[in-house]
Structure formats: C-alpha cells, structure tokens
Amino acid sequence: MRKVGTLTASVGLIFLGVWMVVNKNNPEIGAMVFKFWPAIFVVLGIEVLIAANKKDNKVVNRINYWVIPVIILFLIVNVFIFAKNKITSIAHISFPEITNSIDISDSFSSNKYDVINATKSLEKYGDKIDLNLKNGDIEIKKSTDDKIKIDANVYVKQNSGIDEYEIIEQKKSEGYCIDFNQHYVKKVKATIYIPNGYDIKVDSTNINFKLEDSELTANVFIDGTNGDVKLDGDISNVKIDMTNANVQIKNSTCKDVDVDLTNGDVSIKTNDDNVKINVDTTVGICFLNGSKYKSVNKKIGDGEGKIRVDITNGVVNIKTQE
C-alpha cells in the first residue's frame, strides 16, 4: 500500500516551521515567504502523478490523511495574516483629513466669520504660559526682548456685535494663563513669542501647534482631542495627550518625551544617544532606527533620557543616535 500525501505533509510542516522562525525575527520577510505556501498543492499534484504512473497492480494507492489537517493549518494561518494586514491598514489613518474636518483651517475666513486682530505684550513672569481654547492654530517663536508677545487673529461669528477683542491674562503661581474660550470665539490663529526657557501648555479641543525655532529652548505640554503637532528645536521635555493627532518631534536631547494617543502617527527624531524607549501599541507598528517592532522596551546608551509612546491605532517612527 502506497500513501499519497506523505511527502506533501512533510514538506508542508518543514515549510511552516521555517516560516515561523523567519517570521519571529523579521515579520516582513516572513510575510513574503508565506506567500509561497500554495506550492504544497504542486507537491501533492506531483505525488498523485507519480503514483498514477506506477504500474504495479499489487500496490494500492491511498491518501495519507495527515495532509488534510496540514492544508487546513495553512489556510488558517493565511486567513490570520490577511485579517491582520487589513486591520493594520485600517488603523493607519490619514490625519490631515481629520484636521480639515474639524474647522481649524483657513475656511474660518469665510463670510460666516469676522476676524479681529488682537495683540498683547507682557513682562516676563514665572516660567510658563497656559493657553485654553477650543479651536487653535498656534505658532511659538522666540522673543527678542525677553517679553511675552501675542499676535492673534480671533474668529467670531459675523453680526455678533463683537468688534474688538482684548486678550486678558491671569497671573498664576507658575506664570500666565490666557483663556480664549468665550462663547463667541470660534477659532484663534496666533503667533506667540516667549522668552528662552519658558514652558508652554495648551488645553484645546482642536489644535494645530507648531514650534520650529532652533534658537528657542522650551518645554511643551499639550492636552487635546484632535490636532497636528510639529516640534523642532531644543525641546527636551514634551507631554502630549490627545485622541487623534499627527505628532512630529525633532530635538537634540530627550529628557522626558511622553506621547499618549488613541489614533495617529508619531515621528520622533533625536540626536540623543542615551535614552530609554518604551512604545506600546494595540493595533499598530513601531519602527526604531529602521527596524520594525510590535512594541519596544529598549535602552540606548545609559538610558538617561526617556521616550514613551502609548498609542492604540497608528504608526510610530523613532530615530536616535546609536
């Protein structure tokens, strides 16, 4: 008695074992290798042809039923990989579209709104400025005279009776607090000049935030729902807690960088070579210095600095000095 399928089952199990080893070390190569799994049907077909061509009436050809669970196993793994790729692609959201949908773009200059220019100059007090607003487009720059200056365009509903807007500051223990949350204010687009070493904290529903001044040393803290954050400069302490966001950070050192998102993309590029990195993703991927991971817990150098990213859906890309 000759059993057809023995060779196929053996080759299939060997292939599956090799794939598991490769996939564990490099998921991208593993996914590429697994695409060739249907070749086991070719092996099975060859076995059938060889058995059929052997003219030996005394030998009965029978199927080796082990080949059936092997094929089913391959089908299950194939379905799993397909579903995983689908979920990852869904999780990779294009957040510029989200940003455009939350009315923080220049569409506020339409006929529905009046734009009121408001400015404020403040003497340096404390070491922090705290901004509260619903919809904001904020750019931070270094002050040239050690004062805090605000140049803002405030968007209000047309025919609201509001012709002027006064920026009112409150002195807190750590510095200034400025509130733009009046009911008639729909959006604030502002350039804010702060002294070197000053901290900036923003609490906003929808926010475009940009600090790209290589001469400015600052710490940034943002709490919001939707937004786009771009940081480039001497910014070693960052705390961002948002729901949907694109976050781009470029700095020289990372004392404490903490990003917590539900959906989004995070890009961190630092010249720091002594940093401890911890990345947790639920449905997403992380790239660290070109290598792909599901999650990361790694120390580079002596791990003096900290980078922590916690994201549910999205892509994290971190580049450090190695």
**What is the averaged pLDDT score?**
84
- Cα(first) to Cα(last) distance is 62 Å
Instruction: Tell me the total number of β-strands.
Output: 17
- What does the radius of gyration come to? 29 Å
SSE arrangement, N to C: EHHHEHHEEEEEEEEEEEEEEE
- Helical content band: 10-25%
DSSP strand (E) fraction? Answer: over 45%
Indicate how many domains the architecture comprises.
2
Helical stretch tally: 5
Largest sheet: 15 strands, mixed
Low-pLDDT windows of residues: 87-104
Descriptive labels:
5 helices, alpha/beta, 2 domains, 15-stranded mixed β-sheet, 322 residues
Strands, helices and their partners?
Blueprint: E1 2-4, H1 6-25, H2 27-34, H3 39-53, E2 61-63, H4 67-91, H5 95-101, E3 113-122, E4 128-142, E5 148-157, E6 169-171, E7 175-179, E8 185-194, E9 199-217, E10 219-234, E11 237-241, E12 244-251, E13 256-270, E14 275-288, E15 291-293, E16 296-300, E17 305-319
Helix pairs in contact: 1-2, 1-3, 1-4
Organism: Clostridium tepidiprofundi DSM 19306
Keywords: Membrane, Transmembrane, Transmembrane helix
Transmembrane segments: 36-53, 65-83
Describe this structure in words.
The strands form two sheets. The protein has a 15-stranded mixed β-sheet that branches. It has a two-stranded parallel ribbon with strand order 1-2. It is elongated. A hairpin with a 2-residue loop joins strand 14 (275-288) and strand 15. The protein contains five helices and 17 strands. It folds into two domains: 2-91, no CATH class; 100-319. It is an alpha/beta fold and 322 residues long. The model is unreliable at 87-104 (pLDDT under 50).
